[in-house]
Design goal:
Blueprint lengths: L10 E2 L5 E2 L22 H14 L8 H23 L5 H15 L1 H4 L1
Antiparallel strand pairs: 1-2
């Protein structure tokens, strides 16, 4: 930050008015910038697809309660898949693919 001597001191203006220079006191934009998202990142593409799905139903995954319900639902589906594996309804390769897909969906609320 520049020292106080870098700014002119108040002085007389027109008709004897005192002018106070405020340029150095203006608030700077310190708001965090949104991270740059790679449109080719599969996680970003999945997040955009799922968010569009939720938006079409009047909801958004950026809402904390909706995101929590989404995650709870994924947990229930994962439990169902694990049960299907245990009961030999699906075999290990299919289970691994399906669990991988579910796990990929878990990060969606952080990408919207």
């Amino acid at each position: 930050m520049p020292s106080a001597s870098a700014y002119p001191t108040p002085g007389p203006g027109r008709r004897g008015a005192v002018i106070h220079h405020l340029a150095h006191r203006r608030a700077r934009n310190t708001a965090p910038t949104a991270p740059v998202r790679d449109a080719n990142d599969p996680h970003v593409q999945l997040a955009e697809t799922l968010e569009a799905h939720f938006l079409s139903r009047g909801q958004t995954l950026s809402n904390e309660e909706t995101a929590e319900a989404f995650t709870n639902t994924l947990d229930a589906v994962a439990m169902m898949l694990d049960g299907a594996l245990a009961n030999r309804v699906v075999e290990e390769p299919a289970h691994a693919v399906l669990r991988g897909m579910l796990d990929g969906m878990r990060g969606t609320p952080q990408h919207v």
